[in-house]
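Morning. Coffee machine broken again, so started the prediction first thing and wrote up yesterday's gels while waiting. Chain of 257 residues, entered below exactly as on the submission form.
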Amino acid sequence: MPRVVAVYRFALCALFCAVCGSAQPISLAARDAFNLGVRELQAGQFRSAAASFTKAVERAPNLLNARIYLAAAWVQAYRPDDASAENAEVARFAFEACQEVLKRDPKNVAATDSIATLYFQMREFVRAREWNLKVLSLDPNSKTSLHMLGAIIWSEFSVTLREAREIAGMVPEDAGPLKDAALREELKAKYRKALEDGIEFERAALDLDTGYARAMLTMADLLRVRAELGDEATYAADMAEAAAWGERGARASVPNK
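Came back before lunch.
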């Protein structure tokens, strides 16, 4: 499953300036708690950051930015594929923090994006799709939501394809396309349009950021899946394009030294 990391649409320094320049009186204790939470969030200490932002909210209940960052900390603290009760509690805290932001600012992009990301990581794809579309209604240039919509389509269909290959008597090492022609046509009729949509979502994300590694890698995944539903000629073309995107995505994922 593609891992999508929550991306918040504000800069730490810009938010700090907004806090310091706010017309609302803010106590020194609230500022100290907020600033500590920012440092902890930057350091990857997500639970400590959540505790600090909670203190900031308690000391300045109307400070929306502290609530946004509290939601961000809990979202980052959530661990995908961890079924423990403790992690479920983290998800609950994250949803509650996001909803508190949306009560005060219904069009807040960061909180909307956080909910979309949480649903994706929880594999609740119907809700993840709904919330990513909400993000795009607020921010049409959200490369993260465009990418996530494509990743949802891949996640939904990849399991179906794996099962279809097993039904067709294929092992993972077998090259495609899917050898059962009748099953291939059935899946093509049912899923081809969604796969095309997923590819277009990734292309749109890459139009916004030509170096977006996650979009490149998901594009490769979607093309490999589409290849299974084609004939020999289209299979070869899709697999070649998938290989090219995969190589680009792998290079883009490596930090510059």
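The first helix runs from residue 12 to 20. Going to sketch it on the whiteboard this afternoon.
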